Amino acid sequence: MKKAILIFGVLLIPLLISGQSFHLEQDHSTLQVKNIDKSIAFYKSILHLEEIGTPWPEDLNIRFFKIGKYQQLHIAQVNFGDVKLNKAMHLAFNVNDFDGYLKFLKDNKIKYSNFNKEYYKIEQRPDGVRQIYFQDPDGYWIEINDAKH
């Protein structure tokens, strides 16, 4: 009998553990901006993001963009103090026509660089993915790459 209880317990433990596991997925990120109209124009015209509705349609100081199948970028004009920015903390997007996008950035007078801030130079990761960086109107860093997922 003790042997049967022990075997049953050993078989039951993985079921109890797996019943408590969590599955997290990216939902959204929020950026604090100084001028919502300027930021909205940038994210629509330079990144071609699709603006979607918010739960607060009357509040024009927060706007949502679709950035993936189930992911969103929220832009909020709020004043919670200064934000410390550095390139290591950035938004990253991949693009299907990397060279065409570089031309688009140049045509729109957006200065881009590699990670070391060498302007108009492309970073290449060890896996072959090319990437560049530039900043939005509030100084947030954006990476564009040609990763194939």
From the structure above, extract its key features.
149 residues; alpha/beta; 2,3-Dihydroxybiphenyl 1,2-Dioxygenase, domain 1; 2 domains; 4-stranded mixed β-sheet; 25% helix
CATH architecture of the largest domain: Roll
Give me the CATH fold name of the largest domain. 2,3-Dihydroxybiphenyl 1,2-Dioxygenase, domain 1
Give the CA-based shape. globular
Number of helices: 3
β-strand percent reads: 25-35%
Query: How many separate structural domains?
Result: 2
Summarize the amount of helix as a percent range: 10-25%
Order of SSEs = HEHEEEEHEEE
CATH superfamily of the largest domain: 2,3-Dihydroxybiphenyl 1,2-Dioxygenase, domain 1
Major β-sheet annotation:
4 strands, mixed
Q: Would you give an account of this structure?
A:
The chain has about 150 residues and is α/β, with parallel strands linked by helices. The protein has two domains: about 25-85, 2,3-Dihydroxybiphenyl 1,2-Dioxygenase, domain 1; about 85-149, 2,3-Dihydroxybiphenyl 1,2-Dioxygenase, domain 1 (Roll), CATH 3.10.180. The protein is built from three helices and eight strands. It has helices at about 1-20, 35-45, 100-105, and strands at about 30-35, 50, 60-65, 70-75, 90-95, 125, 130-135, 140-145. It has a four-stranded mixed sheet with strand order 1-4-3-2, with helices on one face. Strands 5-8-7-6 form a four-stranded mixed sheet, with no helix packed on it. Strand 3 and strand 4 form a beta hairpin. The radius of gyration is 22 Å and the shape is globular.
